[in-house]
Amino acid sequence: GAVVSQHPSRVICKSGTSVKIECRSLDFQATTMFWYRQFPKQSLMLMATSNEGSKATYEQGVEKDKFLINHASLTLSTLTVTSAHPEDSSFYICSASPTGLGSPLHFGNGTRLTVT
Amino acid sequence: GNSVTQMEGPVTLSEEAFLTINCTYTATGYPSLFWYVQYPGEGLQLLLKATKADDKGSNKGFEATYRKETTSFHLEKGSVQVSDSAVYFCALSDRNYGGSQGNLIFGKGTKLSVKP
Question: pLDDT tens for residues B80-100?
């Protein structure tokens, strides 16, 4: 079945540094990928929609200059958390869907980011 | 705006007990409804879905019926197993990207623990 690979699964970084998270669709092409953020005991919140070959679409309240998204190919989207702060510590999850009517979203296993 | 509310956990049951996890939604139009499951250490997986009123989604013994009159999509299983221990997320989709399933709005998740 369709698989979405997310890397790294866990990362710890210092305040002020940048962290890149990769999301790959392993056996299908995805023109659209989605990035979610999950706070403890909260639901997953959509951050942005990543579009291959064009700019990402950010949800209201998400800083586009802080959360840089690059969807350079049909199988790879990256999320870079720039100048990370402790409040950016969270669980980030990507998802993608094969093109086709009714194709379900497939999720990566998520990345636990801890900013110290 | 659109939202999903599901019962808070954790829910602890004995093996073979009956399970109900309540989910209600608020949405304009006619969203699609989903239940996702996240097993320990794994990513989100689609459990079942319903795309229109009165549809019943079912999978692995789980069922949920799209009730427009009560704006609900409660998850049920007649006899749970230890292997069903996981976090369950109710979600709705109010967008469509090129025929594929679009972004999702999630509930906060309900952790289920099944004891032998």
Answer: 999 999 999 999 887 654 334
Q: With CA atoms as reference, report the closest residue to A71 among A107, A35, A103.
A: A35
B contact test, residue of A6, A105, A109 with most B CBs within 10 A: A105
- Average pLDDT of B53-77? 96
Q: Do B99 and A108 touch (CB under 8 A)?
A: no
Q: Please identify among residues 58-87 of chain A the ones whose CB lies closer than 8 Å to any CB of chain B.
A: none
Q: What is the pLDDT, as a whole number, of residue A39?
A: 79
Which range, of A14-18, A108-112, B19-23, B81-85, averages the lowest pLDDT? Answer: A108-112
Per-residue pLDDT, averaged over A58-86, amounts to 93
Q: Which residues have a Cβ under 8 Å from the Cβ of B105 and sit 6 or more positions away?
A: A43, A46, B2, B3, B4, B91, B92, B93, B94
At B44, the amino acid letter reads L
Residue of chain A with shortest Cα separation from B43: A109
DSSP character string of A63-97: -TTTEEEEEEETTEEEEEE-S--GGG-EEEEEEE-
B contacts of A100 (beta carbons < 8 Å): 99-100
| Residue given tokens 């954790």 in the structure block | B10
